[in-house]
Amino acid sequence: MSLMIEGVAVPDSKLAREITELVRDTEMPLLFHHSSRVYYFGALAGKHRGLKFDPELLYAGAMFHDMGLTKRHSSANERFEVDGANAARDFLRRHGIAESEVDSVWTAIALHTTPGIPQHMHPVVALVTAGVEMDVLGLTYADYSDAERDAVVKAHPRAEHFKEDIIQAFYDGIKHKPDTTFGNVKADVLADKDPHFHRGNFCSVIRGSAWRG
Fold this sequence. Notes:
The chain has a single domain, classed as Hypothetical protein af1432, CATH 1.10.3210. By secondary structure, the protein is mainly α. The protein has ten helices and no strands.
């Protein structure tokens, strides 16, 4: 039986157990615990927002979302988000999951670093990103109670230097294919036309988040 936090738990199913085992065996502890927290924060966000979602699909999206940073699943020329999405798709197809549900998980993982879009999509897509944005960036830190945050972190601890460690994990996972990091082209337009424009910086947001460590 998995830990219950404010009515949220990892699904007690064969599929979820196999996901846990696979991700634990493939990812470093830093990413495994981060992905587990993403599930809990995403599911809690769904509860807060009154969204209906399939916990198994959300768990798959949360747990596979960083698999593209691992050597086993990293391609030579795809974005790491796509690599993770492809790994989840292949796993779910092998387990006979309906293609429409596989598509939702694939999209959730592929878009989890694309702000401004997932929250308008299928709940699984929205909530994977919600969990990531909470755990990495702390964007909705105040939306969670102290009890919720403390329970999630107690179950899946954040490393003492999590912010710097996760930045390093991202770097290690993408440094061999820098062309795949091409970002939001609108920022390029503003930078070209507005001398006073300052680009947002992902690493600065991580370091400046409400989270400690």
